[in-house]
Amino acid sequence: MKPLPEIKVYPERPVLDGRPLERRVGLIILATDHTTEPDFRRMVASERIGVYVARIPYANPTTPENLRKMQPALTAGAALILPDEPLDAICYSCTSASVVIGDAEIEAAIQAAKPGVPVVTPPMAGVRGLRALGVSKISILTPYTVETSRPMAAYFAAHGFDIASVTCLGFDDDREMARIAPAALVDLAREATHASADALFVSCTALRGALAVTGMEQTIGRPVITSNQATAWNCLRLCGDETARPEFGRLMTLPLPRD
Q1: CATH numbers and ranges of domains, the chain
Q2: Mean pLDDT for the stretch of residues 77-97
Q3: How far apart (Å, rounded) are the C-alpha atoms in residues 157 and 154?
Q4: What is the pTM for the complete model shown?
Q5: Which of 52, 134, 149, 194 fits 164 for a cystine, CB–CB 3.0-4.6 Å?
Q6: pLDDT at residue number 258
Q7: Average pLDDT, the chain
Q8: Burial code of 167-198, b = ≥16 C-beta within 10 A, e = fewer?
Q9: Distance CA 143, CA 196 (A)
């Protein structure tokens, strides 16, 4: 074999950019999640904004008890995302667990590893989205069982919304929830939206609801907010991106309201 040439060290280091990408969004998702990463690649990631993902343990069925079990893993999950580097936002992508554990507890667990970073949860983003739309009476559609849907309705009621109706599909496995076709969600939106409701909230980060938002809005003639659409919108606005994206629903054309 011919001898290798001498390896030379270039005498000057290249000038380094401040960051590879200008803005950073952290994403904590379930080990079983099929949907959030593709949705955030589609709606958030760009040449300006990077999305950095950590997965934490989760085992079906989707019950309040199993959802609560994720809380101890949140700090470790957050710590895995660009250690010792700042983030512009970090999202815990589970709607039902956020309701069961509580926004404040999730924020505390994540900020234990990432102090001062704005924390986004899907129900929190949903509340902000509904307020941005100026609605007060809503219908809710979930893929969960009645047991898991009940805390969801209570969460939005506690935040001041009049709940016109709640419809659930009875699933207890998030991997099956991810297999519901977006076109089926359009039909379900029609059945789940009460005549008196100002808007529809479609819960669950496993659902491919972001792909169906415009179809659902056209079908019911009212705004629709889905879990991943709401968190994507919230994270974009925290990164200073105010670009209107009407292809992902009316919410994506609005600014983030002040809390």
Answers
A1: 23-123+230-245 (3.40.50.12500), 128-226 (3.40.50.12500)
A2: 97
A3: 5
A4: 0.95
A5: 194
A6: 80
A7: 97
A8: bbbebbebeebbebeeeebbebbeebbbeebb
A9: 22
